Amino acid sequence: MATVELTFSALPAHVRTARLVATAIARRTGVEESLLDEVRLAVGEACSRAVEAHRAHCPGEPIRIELRDDSGRFEVTVSDQAPSDEITQDEPFDLGMLSDSFMSGFGIAVIAGLADDVEVFPSPKGTDIRMSWPANGRLTSL
């Protein structure tokens, strides 16, 4: 299992870099070419949501992205440190449990439509959004 970690400051300009890195790694881990746009858009949406949350609550804290190739899946986790009033537990839950304002205001619904599998872990300490797509696990050159 290969893992890449990326952190960036809460600036909108860094979202593009995160999208490019995620797309390159997805391609390298064997995500089908037809899914790469979905990867790029979902990662961009999750990172934009994190930037927005950080700018409002903790602009000096970095946003963290973890990209991994695990058991035939390409998995991306975008983590912010902005508090969530939505849920007070550190457990994953069904996306249907989120309020309409949380879903529409932060692009979670868009992400759920783009990624093969999505889990959201909101807590008072921040939110993790884990997305994944099928990958054949072959490493190719960039």
Entry summary:
The chain is of the alpha+beta class. It has 4 helices and 5 strands; from the N terminus they run βααββααββ.
The structure class reads: alpha+beta
Name of the top-level CATH class: Alpha Beta
Mean of pLDDT? 84
Q: What sequence of helices (H) and strands (E) makes up the elements?
A: EHHEEHHEE
Would you report the number of β strands?
Answer: 5
CATH-assigned fold name: Heat Shock Protein 90
GO molecular function: protein serine/threonine kinase activity
Pfam families: HATPase_c_2
InterPro entries: Anti-sigma-factor_SerPK, HATPase_C_sf, HATPase_dom
Domain Histidine kinase/HSP90-like ATPase: 8-133
Model description:
It comes from Nonomuraea pusilla. With 142 residues, this protein is α+β, with helices and mostly antiparallel strands. Strand 2 and strand 3 form a beta hairpin. The chain has one domain: 2-Layer Sandwich (Heat Shock Protein 90), CATH 3.30.565. The protein has a five-stranded antiparallel sheet, with helices on one face. It contains four helices and five strands.
Please describe the structure with a list of short key phrases separated by commas or semicolons.
protein serine/threonine kinase activity; Heat Shock Protein 90; Anti-sigma-factor_SerPK; alpha+beta; 142 residues; 5-stranded antiparallel β-sheet; globular; 4 helices; Anti-sigma regulatory factor (Ser/Thr protein kinase); transferase; kinase
